[in-house]
Design brief:
Elements: E1 6-10, E2 13-17, E3 22-27, H1 31-38, E4 42-44, H2 46-52, H3 60-64, H4 68-81, E5 92-94, H5 98-107, E6 114-121, E7 126-131, H6 142-151, E8 160-165, E9 167-169
Antiparallel strand pairs: 1-2, 3-6, 4-9, 5-8, 6-9, 7-8
Helix pairs in contact: 4-6
């Protein structure tokens, strides 16, 4: 891939796409695959949509995560000290290598049918790269680990995720598995 930004016209809107491939672990029967096809590769994070028109919109992760108290603790620190970073609750999660996406599928989503798809960040989206190893902690460590997570500190065994607020481009949107998958 060359290092230049790629410009795309999607329904009269120009999007500048960063020249780096990332990876997303999406539900095999999830709405993202259809949304990407309908949006000609562009999918907006729910966090972005909430700001524009639907403040009640929520991701399946935001609705059904296994530890909402921990997510609330992380969000409280983010809002107080790092309000310029994207929320974990409604953003799009990516990985900077396919191996990390595969590991997430085996560990976090072991009971779900997930597919790994390529993604690219659209210029202007808010991005945070964090080490998810900080999340592996007891409640008495949540506050200190949340701060380290939001500062972008890295543990001795990093597992990096890329949190995106705004549009993301899925370059393979014209081929399977994208399209209606219900």
């Amino acid at each position: 891939m060359n290092n230049a930004l790629h410009e795309m016209n999607v329904r009269g809107h120009i999007f500048r796409i960063m020249p780096i491939y990332l990876w997303h672990a999406t539900h095999a029967k999830g709405i993202l695959l259809n949304t990407a096809r309908l949006g000609q590769g562009i999918v907006y994070s729910i966090s972005y949509i909430r700001e524009l028109e639907l403040d009640g919109a929520i991701t399946s992760y935001g609705a059904f995560n296994s530890n909402p108290d921990k997510e609330d603790a992380w969000e409280k620190i983010r809002l107080a000290e790092f309000p310029f970073l994207p929320t974990r609750k409604h953003s799009i999660f990516l990985f900077d290598c396919s191996d990390d996406a595969e590991l997430a599928c085996r560990t976090w989503f072991a009971n779900e049918c997930r597919l790994i798809v390529k993604a690219q960040i659209v210029v202007g989206s808010t991005v945070h790269i964090a080490d998810t190893s900080w999340l592996d902690c007891e409640p008495d460590q949540w506050e200190s680990h949340a701060r380290a997570y939001w500062r972008g500190e890295v543990t001795n065994s990093p597992r990096r995720e890329v949190i995106v607020h705004g549009p993301v481009y899925f370059p393979d949107w014209e081929s399977e598995p994208f399209g209606c998958s219900f």
